[in-house]
Write a structure and sequence with these properties.
Elements lengths: L10 E4 L1 H8 L6 H9 L10 H8 L4 H13 L3 E4 L10 H10 L7 E5 L4 E5 L3 H29 L6 E4 L5 E10 L2 E8 L7 H14 L5
Antiparallel strand pairs: 1-2, 3-4, 3-7, 5-6, 6-7
Helix pairs in contact: 1-2, 1-7, 3-4, 5-7
Length: 214
């Protein structure tokens, strides 16, 4: 018999670490699949064995509970006391506010792999255009060379940066893969991905670009 016991009255929700884990790589292991499926829901699902089976696509309740426990140990999911709905509004309305909360100085943008920014907070238009073009070039390099860095150097980070003479990041670039669409977040200074707004950001993008994909 399983030693797992589900807490009552909770709703499943990814943590900021879970959101980053799910969106920072194209790898499709079971924890990522599970979290990506959570982000496709219109509201946080209630925690139950039946719900876990539906979210994971598996009938073996023991394996579903093991996966949940594994994600919990890694800090990728959390249980909320109250159900919440996916971010309401258009991306044009949502993105600038959500992005502003994940940067220490409020200078951040989200660009696609074509070099156009979807949202910008804090950068002048001309600067945002140049950064977006750079984001597209970095996305290409990341796609081509990230495997080499991981396999040959053991570097598993998915972020890139422009650093000063002391090695401190001045501008950082973080690829985000949502469904089949690749984005890049550019942040001037220190990023704050450990905010609830980052989870909402990935949720909003997933609802738009990864709906009904598993």
């Amino acid at each position: 018999m399983s030693g797992y016991r589900l807490a009552d009255g909770l709703y499943l929700y990814p943590t900021p670490a879970g959101a980053y884990y799910a969106a920072s790589s194209k790898e499709n292991d079971k924890p990522r699949q599970f979290i990506r499926t959570l982000f496709q829901q219109s509201e946080t699902p209630e925690l139950s064995v039946e719900q876990l089976q539906q979210l994971t696509g598996g009938n073996d309740s023991e394996k579903c509970l093991e996966l949940l426990y594994h994600c919990q140990k890694l800090g990728l999911v959390q249980g909320l006391d109250t159900k919440i709905e996916s971010p309401a509004g258009t991306l044009e309305q949502l993105l600038p506010t959500l992005l502003s909360k994940i940067s220490e100085n409020g200078k951040v943008l989200l660009a696609d792999n074509q070099g156009f920014y979807l949202a910008n907070h804090g950068f002048a238009h001309e600067v945002a255009e140049e950064l977006s073009a750079l984001c597209a070039e970095i996305a290409i390099i990341h796609e081509r060379r990230s495997g080499l860095l991981l396999n040959n150097l053991g570097i598993g980070s998915h972020a890139w940066a422009i650093v000063n003479a002391g090695g401190n990041s001045q501008v950082g670039f973080w690829p985000l893969l949502i469904g089949s669409t690749r984005f890049v977040i550019a942040i001037l200074g220190v990023p704050h991905f450990n905010q609830p707004e980052f989870v909402e950001l990935v949720w909003a993008l997933s609802r738009r670009y990864a709906a009904n994909r598993k």
